[in-house]
Amino acid sequence: MSRRPVRRPTERAAIAAACRSARRLPPIPALLAALLVAHERRDRAAVNLCAHRVVRAAAPEVGES
């Protein structure tokens, strides 16, 4: 039984759509607390995510507020 493949957005289109949407970041202390929890649980992916979100919240890019 053959089915038609499900159309999915490409990675580039998904990233572009995410960049267009305005999302507020949580406060920096909450992000740092999440970073500590992730580090205690030795969750590398969560540590990476939290660290990047802390940097983004602390130093927004030009045009972001």
Description:
With 65 residues, the protein is mostly helical. It has a domain at 25-65. Helices cover 58% and strands 0% of the residues. It has three helices and no strands. The chain has helices at residues 11-20, 28-40, 44-58.
How is the topology of this model organized?
Blueprint (H helix, E strand, L loop, with lengths): L10 H10 L7 H13 L3 H15 L7
Helix pairs in contact: 2-3
Rg from Cα: 17 Å
Residue stretches low in confidence (pLDDT < 50, at least 5 long) are none
H/E order of the elements?
HHH
- Indicate the proportion of strand residues: under 5%
- By DSSP, the count of extended strands is 0
| Sheet with the most strands, sense and barrel status | none
Helix count, per DSSP?
A: 3
- Broad shape: flat
Instruction: Kindly report the average pLDDT value.
Output: 82
**What structural category characterises the helix and strand content?**
mainly alpha
What is the terminal-to-terminal distance?
52 Å
Helical content stands at 55-70%
